[in-house]
Write a structure and sequence with these properties.
The protein is mainly alpha-helical and 177 residues long. It has 6 helices and no strands. The protein has helices spanning 2-39, 47-69, 77-81, 84-119, 132-157, 167-176. The longest helix is centred in the first third of the chain and has 38 residues, at 2-39. Residues 28-158 form the Tripartite ATP-independent periplasmic transporters DctQ component domain. GO terms for molecular function: transmembrane transporter activity.
Length: 177
């Protein structure tokens, strides 16, 4: 079980790194668009399309890691108002519901990817990007999110630390050492 949980954490960190790379790429692309419009009086034909793909990819690729590090937005008011046992039950129930929802999202993304891939669908822009490429990135992110939710549920029910709130601080300490 520990091996599975460590593998999920490692793949989640890897995809988080990919998301950071995409954020920087997205920022550079938007700066290039601003420069092109402001100084060259023309727009880059691919900037808005690829920025949209990048933002969707960032959301999906980093969402699994956000579950582990508790950096996602959630309402914990109810969990703080009940007993630890009740909080554990409510959290586990919400986690199971999230697993079901993310599985449905994953199936939909897999269907969209396969449809685009098998039909050779491309975007309706000048660039004509094969839609399967951004869709497979979203699918990978959804799969990772599902595994992170499963790992959280396993950790919660086996009494392990299910949220790594100090992950960023530990990474900084390691980098400084």
């Amino acid at each position: 079980m520990d091996r599975f949980l460590k593998t999920v954490d490692a793949s989640s960190r890897l995809l988080e790194g990919c998301a950071v790379f995409l954020i920087y790429g997205f920022g550079a692309l938007m700066l290039a668009e601003v420069f092109a419009r402001g100084f060259l009086a023309q727009s880059l034909p691919y900037s808005w399309e690829y920025s949209t793909f990048a933002m969707a990819s960032v959301f999906m690729l980093a969402s699994g890691r956000a579950i582990r590090t508790a950096t996602h937005v959630r309402v914990s008011l109810v969990l703080e108002a009940v007993s630890p046992k009740a909080a554990r039950m409510i959290d586990a129930f919400a986690n199971v519901i999230a697993l079901i929802v993310v599985a449905a999202i994953g199936v939909s993304l897999a269907d969209a990817f396969w449809s685009s891939y098998s039909r050779g669908l491309v975007s309706a822009t000048v660039v004509r990007t094969p839609l399967a490429v951004p869709q497979v990135i979203l699918l990978i992110g959804a799969i990772q999110l599902w595994f992170d939710l499963l790992a959280r549920l396993i950790r919660r029910w086996t009494g392990r630390d299910y949220e790594d709130r100090d992950a960023d601080a530990l990474a900084q300490e390691t980098a400084d050492a």
